[in-house]
TrEMBL record:
Acetylation found in the keyword field: no
Record's protein name: Histidine phosphatase family protein
Entries under SMART domains matching the protein: PGAM
Entry keywords, A to Z: Glycolysis, Isomerase
Length: 198
């Protein structure tokens, strides 16, 4: 892990209409709900007294909208990074699990057998996205930031944790990232603490 990064703050976008409907959005987008906008404000307050020196976000609108609230609170510009985009859900993007089962019978069962290597039809697997998450962190390091806030998504967020915490992928994939909380990772030790109420 790049040693010049000292603390990395990981946040997920606020709740979206797609989340409410139970749809897996991938690289599609949906607007934040009223709760999602409140969660963005919560994230901003959670990091307001932290030594955040840069804000980066996924290019997806839901993450950018959340990051913008944080940037305004911190007085920092928001820098979008394509590498922080959510895993590409391919032909399943925008579907609920029931939709997926009807359109692609048996695929979700295969996913449960090997969550790491299973690939969304026409999209990405976690395995595919591991190098992308590493490139995101390399770009953040190259910016000169030491205590950056990264606003992204649940799936790519797991892979950021994999790199930052130096845990195996099974451990990283077993976790989630609730909306409205921030994970603070000490890069030197890999220790992660939670800011906010889960």
């Amino acid at each position: 892990m790049p040693s010049s990064l000292q603390t990395v703050y990981l946040a997920r976008h606020g709740q979206t209409e797609g989340n409410v409907q139970g749809r897996w959005q991938g690289q599609l987008d949906a607007p934040l709900t009223a709760l999602g906008r409140a969660q963005a404000r919560t994230v901003a307050e959670l990091v307001a007294d932290e030594p955040v020196d840069a804000v980066f976000c996924s290019p997806q609108g839901r993450a950018a909208a959340t990051a913008q609230v944080c940037g305004e609170r911190l007085g920092l510009p928001v820098v979008p990074l394509d590498e922080l985009a959510e895993l590409h859900h391919g032909a399943m993007a925008g579907m609920s699990p029931d939709d997926m089962e009807r359109a692609f019978p048996g695929e979700l069962a295969q996913r449960r057998q090997d969550k790491y290597r299973w690939r969304f039809p026409g999209g990405e697997s976690y395995e595919d996205a591991v190098p992308r998450a590493a490139r995101a962190l390399a770009r953040v390091e190259a910016s000169g930031a030491r205590h950056p806030l990264l606003v992204s998504h649940e799936m790519i967020g797991r892979l950021l944790q994999h790199h930052l915490r130096r845990v195996d992928v099974a451990t990283a994939l077993a976790g989630g990232h609730p909306q409205g909380v921030v994970y603070r990772v000490d890069v030197s030790t890999g220790e992660m603490t939670t800011l906010g109420e889960v």
